[in-house]
Amino acid sequence: MKTQIITLESHDDLISVRDRMSWAKSPRILLVWTKFEHVTLRPVDLRVLQSHARTLGAEMGLVTRIPNVKRNAQSSHIPVFGTTAEAQRAAWPLRPPRSPRRRRSARVNLPRMKALSKVEEAKWRSNFIVRVGFFVLGVLAVLAVAVLFLPRTSIKLTPISQEQQVTIPVSANPDTGSVFISGSVPAHQTNVLVTVMQTMAITSRGAVPNDKAEGVARFTNLTQNNLTIPAGTIVYTLGATPIKFQTVNITHLPGGSKKFVEVPIAAVEAGSSGDVAAGTIQAIEGSLALSASVSNPNPTTGGTDLTATEALDADRQHLHDTVTAALEQQANQEIESSIGAHDLLLINTLKADAPSQEIYDPPAGQPGDTLKLTMSANYSAQYVKADDLTQLAQSVLDASIPAGFISKPDTLQFSSTVPNTTDLSGSTHFTLQTQRVLLRQIQPQQAIFLVRGLSPSAAKQALQSNLPLAAPPDIQTSPSWWPWLPLIPFRIDVQ
Questions:
Q1: Are 232 and 264 contacting, i.e. CB atoms less than 8 angstroms apart?
Q2: pLDDT value for 243
Q3: Whole-number pLDDT of residue 63
Q4: CA-CA distance, 266 to 282, in Å (whole number)?
Q5: Which candidate, 382, 433, 452, 441, places its Cα nearest to that of 406?
Q6: pLDDT at position 242
Q7: Distance CA 123, CA 111 (A)
Q8: CATH topology of domain 206-307
């Protein structure tokens, strides 16, 4: 019998194979599925293709050696062959007969089925006593839940307390990096620039320079060259306190040994100290001293003093000491304000550099009724942070806490009781007095176990009898009219 052979390829799918089958004009259509081609046809696709072949009035067969494809085809009653020659020689199996149609069963009695489907309620459920009993059980269940979860109680306990005190020798050093329980703590340094100005009244009287002394200086040439003596050339006396004079005008000194010229001079500073004896001016200031010599053939005269109110050296020293003390006091205040409120300032480490400014008004030698001194100095000091002292105090106190006690929060106090001293290594030693309040330890679960389910009065008695309390417990129940404490532990709060 004429057979249309269609070889399946990897790109074929249900639509493309069905279209190729539609062009077949033979009563048999043979699909060739080789094992080398990856054809994406599912078992349901084979049944669809078989149905399509029957609509075309043909029978569909399959040539394949792939086991799972053979099983899927045979389950759909599709003839399977090993080769195309075998398919053309062998007889194809007949189409399985169609199953006869079942006769439509008689119409069921729907009203009867509806009646049978209804489930009658048990008679005991409609009993009035049973209904009331279940209602009472529901109410009791709600009340039980309310009893368990509605009340809430807050209990405040005051345990027995005692004071713990420890004296700690402390060593603060800038080279220490952390706090040690042995007493070593880091020392930090701070600096501050302080300026103080004070004025004092002057009652001392002294000689105040008034007029400058005048005279003549004789310059003698020591060379063969002509020399020029500029105006303002300084000449002075020898001795511990030289008296200086300056030439009044420019003068020319002829060349030649022993040549001399006399020049008018005046004292640089006013006062009677400029009146010097003849022959006491012997030195020239500057390079002219290499070419000439000087002397005063006559005494200098005309220097006068006035008696007026003037600050003496004792007055200046007194004002200096006063300002120095004020500088140190102000430096101490400014350093304390720059560090933490509870930081410990090491007073003995307060040091001052040399004054950067020290100005007297009026200057020395000038008259005046008041003397004003302005001084500035840079001060440095060391201090210990409060956090470090707190850490040290807690470590030492915790190491000696009695058994069965805990520390009360926010009761730790410390203070320096001995003046601090600094040794040669730069460590500052002082004594730290520490104290805090300890409370007898009470487990909240123990208190809850003692009082749950009791009345407030019975709960107070149970707590006072079994716990170390310093005062009667304070029990607050919510709502206030509830007569018992909760049974559930998490509804009781113990502080």
A1: no
A2: 92
A3: 86
A4: 15
A5: 441
A6: 92
A7: 25
A8: Elongation Factor Tu (Ef-tu); domain 3 (2.40.30)
Q: Give the type of residue at 77.
A: H
Residue 106, pLDDT score? 55
CATH fold, domain 3-89, is Transcription Regulator spoIIAA (3.30.750)
> What would the two tokens of residue 230 be?
């500029």
How far are the Cα atoms of 171, 182, 189, 338, 387 from residue 342, in angstroms, in the given order? Answer: 18, 22, 16, 11, 9
Q: Cβ(482)–Cβ(145) under 8 Å?
A: no
Q: What is the pLDDT of residues 221-237, one digit of tens each?
A: 988 889 999 999 999 99
> What is the Cα–Cα distance from 316 to 358, expressed in whole angstroms?
11
Residue 468, both tokens = 């170390």
Burial class of residue 78, CB neighbours in 10 A (0-12, 13-18, 19+): buried
Would you call 27 exposed, middle or buried from its count of C-beta atoms within 10 A (0-12, 13-18, 19+)? middle
pLDDT for 300: 92
Contact 20, 30 (CB under 8 A): no
| E strands, 8-135, in order | 28-32, 59-63, 80-81
Q: Is the pTM of this model over 0.70?
A: no
Kind of pairing, strands 28-32 and 59-63?
parallel
d(CA 369, CA 308): 9
Amino acid sitting at position 468: P
Among 324, 234, 215, 358, smallest CA distance to 279 is for 215
Residue 230: its pLDDT value, please? 93
Give residue 206's pLDDT. Answer: 64
User: Would you list the domain boundaries of the chain?
Assistant: 3-89, 149-159+442-494, 166-204+310-434, 206-307
* CA dist 233 → 94, 174, 244, 263, 286 (Å): 152, 58, 10, 10, 8
Residues of the chain short of pLDDT 70, as ranges, are 94-108, 117, 119-121, 125-126, 146-149, 203-208, 308-311, 365, 418
For residues 75 and 46, give the distance between their C-alpha atoms in angstroms, rounded to a whole number: 10
